[in-house]
Design brief:
This protein is mainly β. It contains one helix and 24 strands. It folds into three domains: about 1-120; about 130-200; about 210-300. The strands form six sheets. It has a four-stranded antiparallel β-sheet with strand order 1-2-3-4, with no helix packed on it. A four-stranded antiparallel β-sheet has the order 5-6-7-8, with no helix packed on it. A four-stranded antiparallel β-sheet has the order 9-10-11-12, with no helix packed on it. Keywords: Signal.
């Protein structure tokens, strides 16, 4: 991808938008591909103009920028089907006060190519998770529904579901993980429920970040559910027998948002969120089978 080459002066209205948006919800996600871990963030980290990037890491190396957006007020959202990486790039156009997105496709070690060129985005596509059925069709979550979108067309409901959905994720065996307000559902492609976890939120939590007592992200593997509990500043695991435990408890200013299973290990991503006008600062750690934690990326 091209390196950044735009004006560095952003109008005050865009900066106001960026500040409120960046702190309200970290946008993006984290995926694993073989020996590699990829996630979305901003680069430079301290730049309030919010240039999105995709980071990559493998054991024995330092995290590095894989893809850099040339647009301010941008975001990346990620999905992989085995070795194929699909990337939604989003930018905000101040002149027309709208989002636009495009879809890129790549593999590790190759340059991304555009498979869907820029188009107006009224749905915040990818922000609530997405996956590709083919190069011509995607499925994405947009509260409270799940939508299908064919290239060049308008979104339609992918299937009817009785409960509102905040986030979707493609998981093993061609199944979908649906995260709701207080529940999580493992479903088939037609929406039939295979497994359900209820009462994910502790109503007694006090002083939740931004007063949002919510589970921000979830992943599923081999009967286990991994949760990023934003409201409690914790990472939780529910095993295949239904027992829940907190595997990492964080404290202010760390706020958990993304999780991913990586074979028998767990990737846990949080950020320092300090509401003083500064940008978030990342903290990515790996929890092994013995529950030993190692830090992969930590910026102060």
């Amino acid at each position: 991808m091209k390196t950044r080459n735009i004006k560095t002066t952003i109008l005050g209205t865009v900066l106001l938008f960026l500040t409120s948006f960046a702190f309200a919800h970290p946008t993006g996600n984290m995926i694993t591909i073989g020996e590699n871990v990829l996630w979305s963030y901003i680069n430079p980290i301290k730049d309030p103009n919010h240039y999105a990037c995709v980071m990559i890491w493998k054991r024995g190396s330092e995290p590095k920028v894989l893809i850099q957006s040339e647009y301010a007020a941008s975001d990346y959202m990620l999905y992989n089907n085995q070795n194929e990486i699909y990337i939604i790039e989003r930018k905000f156009l101040q002149a027309s006060d709208e989002f636009q997105i495009r879809v890129l496709k790549s593999t590790i070690g190759s340059q991304p190519k555009v498979i869907w060129d820029w188009f107006k985005d009224d749905y915040r596509i990818g922000e609530g998770g997405f996956f590709m059925l083919s190069d011509e069709q995607m499925v994405f979550g947009k509260y409270p529904e799940i939508y299908s979108l064919k290239k060049g067309e308008q979104p339609i409901k992918y299937f009817e579901f009785d409960n509102p959905i905040t986030r979707i994720r493609a998981v093993e065996n061609n199944q979908i993980l649906l995260l709701g307000d207080n529940s999580c559902y493992l479903v088939q492609q037609n929406g039939d429920i295979l497994k359900q976890w209820n009462d994910l939120i502790d109503p007694t939590v006090e002083n939740a970040p931004m007063n949002r007592n919510q589970v921000f992200d979830a992943d599923y593997s081999s009967g286990e559910l991994l949760l990023s509990y934003w409201g409690k500043r914790s990472f939780d695991l529910i095993n295949d027998s239904g027992t829940r435990k907190t595997i990492i408890q964080q404290s202010e200013p760390y706020t958990p948002h993304w999780v991913a299973f990586w074979n028998d290990e767990k990737l846990l991503f949080s950020s320092q969120l300090i509401f003083d006008g500064s940008t978030p600062k990342p903290h990515l750690s790996l929890l092994n089978e013995q529950n030993n934690q190692s830090v992969i990326w930590n910026i102060q």
